[in-house]
Amino acid sequence: MPLAFLRRLRDRTPHSPQPALPRGAGALDLCVDDPVGLPMAGAEISVRDASGREAMAGRTDPNGRLTVTLPPGGYRLLVTSDGFRPVRCEAQVTAGERTAPRPITLELAPALPLPEAGQWRLDPDHSAIRFTARHIGLAEIHGRFNRFEGGLWIGERMQDSRVEVTIDAASIDTGVRMRDDHLRSAEFLDVARFPHLQFTGDRFVHKGGSRWAVQGVLHLHGVSRTVQLDTRYLGIGTGIMGETRTACQAVTELHREDFTLDWRKMLARGIAAIGATIRIELDIQAVRPE
């Protein structure tokens, strides 16, 4: 009864007048619901034409709605959201008309099997730690750390797990030797005094579907700060030698001032040598020790 009332309330909610359609075009008024019939915000919808070319893509609003304006014709829709089965369907667009197909309902996807409890070793040969920062306030620079090691200790409950990663600061690599030497210098990472970056995460929080938040402490440049890795778990697989592997992707953003990486001399001259935030991306595979 409450769910039916909420659905009726959504359907009766007044909407702002729809803008006139461009001449010769039509519109699809799409609606996406979750498994219990409530509107699903943030669902991704890709609309492709008869040739397979993506004509439009977007996300549903807080009411689970997305309107797309297209030339007349037949289209294929792909609706996805993390933790749910993708839905494929077709729709027809008519010139001068607004078409409202039946609501699209997403069903929960089966949960990926979690890693077996115990110790797992990070495999550097199949992992990467990358970063992106702005250079002098304009173009982005991309780099990576080439040497690192670490491990995962998976608890009987995933929430009780722990991860440790140690990175060789001198292995920073942006593809430009002069810039890399500068990044290793006392003005930035100061690798002579602080040869390693280290992250220890001991709080795993399930965010739904394959999403986890891994919270821990990053030690960088002699400073320790709490950070959160927004993590996507990729499941279990088997390597070429028959070994069992587990994998994930993770991202976070660091504020350089938090780690006293401010290049004060250059900033005093009005040169923003590096942006206020640095984006860190990780592709991680781990294996069980022999």
From TrEMBL:
Signal peptide: none
InterPro entries: CarboxyPept-like_regulatory (IPR008969), Lipid/polyisoprenoid-bd_YceI (IPR007372), TTHA0802/YceI-like_sf (IPR036761)
Domain of life of the organism encoding this protein: Bacteria
Residues annotated as domain Lipid/polyisoprenoid-binding YceI-like: 119-287
Pfam families in the record: CarboxypepD_reg, YceI
Family to which the UniProt record says this protein belongs: Belongs to the UPF0312 family.
PANTHER family noted in UniProt: PROTEIN YCEI
Protein name: YceI family protein
Species whose genome carries this gene: Streptomyces yunnanensis
Organism classification: Bacteria, Bacillati, Actinomycetota, Actinomycetes, Kitasatosporales
